[in-house]
Amino acid sequence: MDTFNISEGRILPGSGLAEFTVGYRAVVWRPFKGETVDAIVTSVNHVGFFADAGPLPLFVSAHLIPSDIKFDPNATPPQYTNNEDSVIEAGTHVRVKLIGTRAEVGGMYAIASIKEDYLGNNHEKWFRKVEIKAKSNGYFYVAEQSRENFDLIYREGGQNKPPLTKKFDVSKETGDVDDLKPKFEKNIKIFDQNSARFFSLVTDLVSDDDQAVFDEYDSAIEVWKHLRTKYGKTS
């Protein structure tokens, strides 16, 4: 919060207190029903888990967790898990959808769900696949806006032409071209299009750990060398 104007004080009759009119700027956030947010789990029990989405505390009931993810009371710390790639415990980053909100004096609370596609704690793996697929089609930067909407930066005809920012709906693959100029252009990682096509082809054939390696190398040949070194018989 930043104050930019404070009036002269006015003495309140009968009390001796002074009253000031203060102008201020503040960053505020109002969550809405149906909104998708990222949160950090704070506690887990058999009825669900609690998490914080920034200043918003929320609760995800066990009924709003996918049926294959079960509560494990014997784990340390207690957790929800499917005994594969999904583990939800204190400190886990999750993506949730707000089902409802409740405002009280001094605070706001929410009920949320992870019982939909691309929610929970494994959305990053899904996004990596979307990112690689987009890059293989000529987009060299993908910025996630929500679980369905992305900003795709596409440079047509080489490095000398200015980039276009396209709003992209993953489900429909349609959208209008905007003339937004990305502020993150200096920090982007540019995959060669052929490398991205290679990543797109092999992404479903390798483990999640190997998919994460895609983020560490700048070309397909470097990833290929890594896979050959790791598995030996790769040809």
From TrEMBL:
Keyword Signal: no
GO terms under biological process: positive regulation of nuclear-transcribed mRNA poly(A) tail shortening; positive regulation of translational initiation; transcription initiation at RNA polymerase II promoter
Localization: Nucleus
Annotated ranges, domain S1 motif: 31-106
Gene Ontology molecular function: single-stranded DNA binding; single-stranded RNA binding; translation initiation factor binding
Organism: Erysiphe pulchra
UniProt entry tagged with the keyword Transport: no
GO cellular component terms given for this protein: P-body; RNA polymerase II, core complex
Domain of life (superkingdom): Eukaryota
Function: DNA-dependent RNA polymerase which catalyzes the transcription of DNA into RNA using the four ribonucleoside triphosphates as substrates.
Classification via Pfam families: S1 (PF00575)
Protein name per UniProt: DNA-directed RNA polymerase subunit
Entry keyword set: DNA-directed RNA polymerase, Nucleus, Transcription
InterPro entries, alphabetized: NA-bd_OB-fold, RNA_pol_Rpb7-like_N_sf, Rpb7-like, S1_domain
